[in-house]
Amino acid sequence: MRYSTENIGTRNKLDFLAIILFILLVIIGFVNIYSVTSDVTQSGFHLSSIASRQLFWISGSALIILLISFSNVVLIDYLSYYIYGLIIILNIAVLFFGKEVGGARSWFGFGGIGIQPSEFAKFATAMALSKFLGGYGVKFKGWKNVSISIGIFFLPILLILLQNDTGSALVFFSFFLVLYREGLPGYFLLIAVWLGILSILSIYFNAVNLSLVYLYIIIAGIGSIFVYFLRKNRQLILLTVGIAVASMMYTGIVSFAYQTIFKQYQRDRIEIVMGLKQDSKGMGYNLEQSKIAIGAGRFSGRGFQEGTQTKMGFVPEQHTDFIFCTIGEEWGFIGVIGFFIIYLSLLLRLLFLAERQSNTQGRIFGYSACCILFFHWFINIGMTIGIIPVIGIPLPFISFGGSSLWGFTLLLFIFLRYDQVRRN
Amino acid sequence: MQDILKNRYPVFIGVIILFFILYGIRVGTLQLSNNNYEQKAISNALNKITLYPARSIIYDRNGEILVKNYVVHDLFAFPKELKEENRSFVCDLLDIDTSTYNDLLLDAWVNSKKRQKNNSYNRSALFYSNLSQKQYSILRENLFRLDGFYIESRTDRSYNMTGGGHALGYLGEATELLLSSDEYYQPGDLVGITGIERYYEELMRGTKGIQTVWQDRTYVEKGKVEIDSFNISPISGPDFTSTLDIRLQKFAEELLENKKGSIVAIEPSSGEILAFINKPDYDPNLLVGKERGREFRKMLIDPQKPLYNRAVKGKYPPGSTVKTVLALIGMEEGVIHPGSLKGCGGGYRLGSIVVGCHGHSSPLDVTGSIRISCNSYYCDLFRQIIDNPKYGDVKKGYAVLEKHWRSFGLGNPTGIDLLGESSGNIPTVEQLDRRHGKHWRSSMVVSLGIGQGEMLLTPLQIANVAVIMANRGFYYPPHLIKKIRGVPDSIWKKTFKERKYTSVNRKHFDPVITGMSQVTVPGGTASGMNFGDIKICGKTGTAQNPHGKDHSLFIAFAPKINPKIAIGVIVENGGFGATFAAPIASLMIEKYLAPDSPISRPYLYERVTKTPITY
Question: How far is A334 from chain B (nearest CA, A)?
Answer without folding.
Answer: 10
